[in-house]
Amino acid sequence: MAAEAPPPLTIDELAREAGMTVRNVRAYRSRGLIPPPRLEGRRGYYGPEHLERLELVRELKEQGLSLEAIARILERDPDEALREVLDFTRAAMTVPRREEPRIVSGQAFAERWGEQLTPALARRAERLGFVRRVGPDRWEIRSPRLDRAAGALSEIGSPLEAALELAALLRRHARAVARAYVELFRDEVWQPFEDAGEPAADWPRVRAALDRLQPLAGESLMAVFDVAMADAVEDALEQALHAMRKSG
User: Fold this and answer.
1) pTM exceeds 0.70, yes or no
2) Residue 3 covered by a domain
């Protein structure tokens, strides 16, 4: 026996089901983000397709897209590839993390560095995004690996201030590398896809390219760093030997 179709919804019922206001539903309808209702006399009725579309619009909006951008997506692909669009948007807006942040108390944070952690250095670390206050007496160490590296540098005689400056330098270079890879993706993958009219059949290929972007960037950066570090060490040794020969 076939399941009965769900009863039609008034705009008030649709808004309640979607968890939003009637005003928002009307605004989305006026922008063409949901199909027009079925009219019976002067009253409009909505069905499951309207609720699904509202949920999709909300998800896209939560991923950071403007209503104008969502309208353009829906205009191009009103019934096709919308889930691919949503999956792609989630992937683009979500930064994959290789490690989880660590939450510590203010006391533990202060004891970690002792007298080296001046209020000025704590503020600078926070401005650089390495740590973040998450409560009156709670700190988030956003990269425990970076924190461990700073501790290791301290153990070999480098003060916290110098480690922080080095981390800031690395951050600037890392941002430049990240921008270069994002621009490469935009110019070589996304732009041709957009020029072709964003065919639905190509969404998996574009998504796969995005998924590979960060791992490729990380691997390439480490490979180049290994070569650069070896060259720097060789140069430093050569200069030290040259200085020893001159002094001898």
Assistant:
1) no
2) no
